[in-house]
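Box 3.1 A note on notation
Throughout this textbook, protein chains are presented in two layers. The first layer is the amino acid sequence; the second is a token string describing backbone geometry. Keep the layers aligned when reading.
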Amino acid sequence: MPEGHSVHRITRQFQRNFIGHRVTVSSPQGRFATGATQLSGHSVTDARAVGKQMFLEFDHGLWLRIHLGLYGAWDFSGEVLMDATMASANGRMGQTNQHGTKVAAGAEAATFDADGENSIFSIGAPRRTRVRMSEQEKEIEPVDIFPPEPVGQVRVRLLTDTVCADLRGPTACEVLDPAQVDAVIARLGPDPELENTPAAEERFVSVVRKKPTPIGRLLMDQSVVSGIGNVYRAEILFRAGLNPHTPAKSLSDETVRALWQDWAHLLHIGVATGQMMTMDKLEGAGYRRAMRSRAHRHWVYKREGLPCRVCGSHIVLEDMAARKLYWCPRCQA
């Protein structure tokens, strides 16, 4: 399932390519035909992400709400102009790495992740291409004919004169009015990429400190904090040295504040690079290797049975809240 950083990156694509443009909205699959009729012919005026959900506003006041869920993905095709703030692994934009060290602009060679979690490198001038954005990002193929024929079960197609966005497999896809959008957002926990403020931090801390729920389960609750999924849950808990089964209300204020601050830190890096990079103090070849392969950029995620990078104990895999949980029984004792 796409985690918070992916949805923010997708939203930035809409901000760059669709805001201010009149769009033709259709439903090639047919399941969103009524909603498409409500939106088609109007201009996009806003695009925002809150955790794992995104919202597109149109000039007549209606919104399109999307939750990608487990299988959803957007394909952007045409003269796609990538958001210049979406720094890629080659350091062209001078992004900050995990160690807090700024990678020199142009100092790195372009890297491509063998697992398919590729950052997009077409920053700058638009070119004819097709880019798939979900949990992973990858450039699929050049586009010879625009708009391209729909591929697969396309729930929604948004089309401008130069760019096409096709949505497949979402958990939620609906037209809402402003009051309904406000109600949905009110049910979501704070998102530090939107509001990394003392008030947002305090909201998170106050909720967590009241709950007897295991912290490993609570971090996945989108009403408590927005955007954290399976990868970030495992990595944040390891970085904090916390046993996932610890009752949330037993944690100190200081510990809970540190969780919020680390989530804000990791989310910002994920939005900037397109990778869920959670390893610290990586420089040069080590950083490039981690950007190429997830096996080198996580502490515990998908490392079950392998020795902990810190203590050597075997990483444990178990189920929590019907999701796979990875943790070190010694470092997180």
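The chain has two domains: 4-86+123-184, 190-327. The CA atoms of residues 317 and 326 lie 5 Å apart.
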